[in-house]
Design a protein that fits this description.
heterodimer; A: 113 residues; alpha/beta; 4 helices; 26% strand; B: 467 residues; seven-stranded mixed beta sheet; 33 strands
Chain lengths: 113, 467
């Protein structure tokens, strides 16, 4: 799994590429810690367009990231969920906990200024 | 009239479900069962199934057709051969009449009225040059069909046969939901219809905190955990476990599937660890077994463990009771008692166990203490009987037993608790009861109560009392 980060209109867009699964969960947690542990009220959009697989460990890491961001007064939402990841979000009812947008632009626009 | 089902080709959309189309469940019954019942209603009894993938499973599921009073013969063709190729092998065989189901289509019924007679006209469904269903009693038309030439076939009328082609997972899913919505009543005899549209199978166990909202269909051997919500419009197959707080609505859960705690299934098909969106056929395999997982086949580890428990208990009893049983049985034999061979239907089929016939001077204590069953403990160890279960029947009654939900012949049985041991109605009721309540606790209860009823002679006393 690859992770990249860019800032659009003050919103941090994290792009995930490849499977987000058991072997990648620790790296995902560590990267989020490194990027956002010192941040104040970070607004984060996770772009899942190229994340083709997601399992419980990967979802757990994303929940951890959301908690990390929210603990610092910020918010985390998801954009461009692919079909397979969407099914996982659906059966685990994660869609009730996170805001999910169709595009990154839409997600960025929805963030409070 | 010969009916030929071509089952060798599985439609591409059914690939994620991993079973041949005749076994795909429609309203919790195999697809082909609807066709067989349709044939039975027409009086067609000579059925032929052309097999390909899943041949063994199909044969195992439908057998020789004795359940429906028809004869099913199985045939094979090589991969890639067309349905007509098989018919051409022996064209004379079909000339007296042919109904050929060449593609996976469903015999839908518009209402629950009796089917209209088919008559002598040649009928077809779909493209007349390559029909999915062909019917004719005319030798010339049948020959033309076998030669893939044009014959004057007209479409079936709705009252004769409403062919429903299933071209996608969405069609299949919609058909299932239509069944749970009430269409299933058109295919069931009145005694089996449920006005509340809640069909529950045998051995469905759930606590009071589970919510079941009609319409639902739940198969056999299903476990629902606390706070689970099933329905409306949910179909659960056989051997399904729905864990706590899970929700299943507008969905189809196929046989042998486990859904983990808190999982929500809405408008989806769950098949083992495979989650399918019927709208577009997207299928993902969930790797997390605490979310979704396939369950073992029936008769797996749990059954083996139970068998082991019965064997161990029988062996222990055999050793413990031997010092008392041997002298008393010898005494009984001196008093005219003897063991005779009597054919019974055991776990593995018919066998010839020894049955005690008391003599005039045999001590009654032998039967009261169940010592006459001491040699028969060996049959439990050997695997022909269970220690407790149902009263073993004779091999002549095998056909009757096949219609029971469970047959577990045991040394001790519910029949020991009552005087009229051979009452056929009570035996059937007990078979249903045992299918619902079978477990370690129930097995121990049957043993203890059955043994105590023999000791006290309660069952015999009741029999001797005047009516």
């Amino acid at each position: 799994m690859n992770m990249t980060k860019e800032t659009i209109n003050g919103v941090c867009v994290v792009r995930l590429e490849g499977p987000v699964m058991l072997g990648d969960a620790d790296a995902l947690r560590a990267t989020f810690r490194r990027w956002f542990e010192q941040a104040s009220s970070p607004r984060v959009v996770v772009d899942m367009e190229k994340a083709d697989q997601l399992d419980s460990a990967g979802l757990g890491a994303l929940v951890y990231a959301a908690q990390l961001v929210r603990d610092r007064g910020g918010d985390l939402c998801f954009a461009c969920l692919q079909k397979k990841a969407r099914l996982v979000f659906e059966i685990t009812r994660s869609y009730k906990v996170f805001d999910i947008y169709a595009t990154v632009d839409e997600a960025v626009r929805a963030q409070p200024a | 009239m010969n009916v030929v089902f071509h089952t060798a080709v599985t439609p591409p959309w059914a690939a994620p479900l991993e079973r041949p189309w005749p076994l795909l469940p429609v309203g919790n019954r195999p697809w082909l069962e609807y066709w067989i019942e349709w044939c039975v209603a027409r009086g067609f009894t000579s059925l032929h199934a052309v097999l390909g993938d899943g041949a063994l499973e199909i044969e195992h599921a439908f057998g020789a057709g004795e359940r429906w009073g028809v004869s099913i013969t199985y045939h094979f063709i090589r991969d890639g051969q067309s349905p007509i190729t098989f018919l051409r092998r022996s064209p004379d065989r079909w000339r007296e009449g042919l109904l050929h189901i060449a593609a996976p289509v469903f015999p839908r019924r518009a209402d629950d009225q009796p089917l209209a007679p088919l008559g002598d006209a040649t009928r077809c469904a779909g493209d007349p040059r390559q029909p999915s269903v062909f019917y004719s009693r005319r030798a010339a038309d049948i020959d033309a069909y076998l030669n893939e030439a044009y014959c004057a076939a007209t479409p079936f009328t709705e009252a004769e046969l409403l062919v429903q082609p299933l071209d996608s997972l969405a069609d299949y899913f919609d058909l299932n939901l239509a069944m749970v919505d009430g269409e299933i009543n058109r295919y069931l005899t009145p005694g089996y219809r449920r006005e509340d549209r809640a069909y529950l199978g045998f051995n469905v166990v759930y606590p009071s905190s589970t919510t079941i909202s009609a319409p639902v269909m739940i198969g056999n051997d299903v476990r629902l955990r606390g706070l689970a919500t099933i329905g409306p419009r949910a179909i659960l197959g056989n051997r399904v476990i729905i864990d706590r707080q899970a929700e299943v609505t507008d969905s189809l859960v196929l046989d042998g599937t486990y859904l983990g705690p808190g999982i929500e299934l809405n408008g989806r098909i769950a098949c083992g660890r495979r989650l399918i969106d019927p709208a577009d056929g997207t299928a993902i395999d969930i790797e997390d077994t605490h979310w979704m997982a396939p369950l073992r086949a029936a008769g797996g580890r749990g059954e083996k463990l139970r068998r082991l428990g019965h064997c161990a208990a029988a062996l222990a009893l055999w050793i413990v009771v031997a010092p008392l049983a041997i002298p008393l049985l010898l005494l009984g034999m001196m008093g005219g008692g003897r063991f005779v061979r009597q054919p019974l239907l055991g776990v593995r089929g018919p066998f010839l166990p020894m049955v005690w016939r008391p003599g005039r001077w045999s001590p009654g204590l032998i039967e009261r203490l169940s010592l006459h069953d001491w040699p028969r403990l060996a049959y439990v160890v050997r695997g022909d009987l269970w220690l407790s279960g149902q009263l073993p029947v004779t091999p002549d009654e095998e056909t009757e037993v096949r219609s029971w939900p469970a047959y577990r012949p045991g040394l001790f049985a519910y029949a020991d608790l009552r005087p009229d041991r051979d009452d056929p109605v009570l035996r059937r009721i007990e078979a249903c009861y045992y299918a619902h309540h079978r477990g370690w606790g129930e097995d121990v209860r049957i043993c203890l109560f059955g043994w105590w009823a023999r000791v006290t002679g309660r069952n015999r006393r009741a029999a001797e009392e005047p009516a």
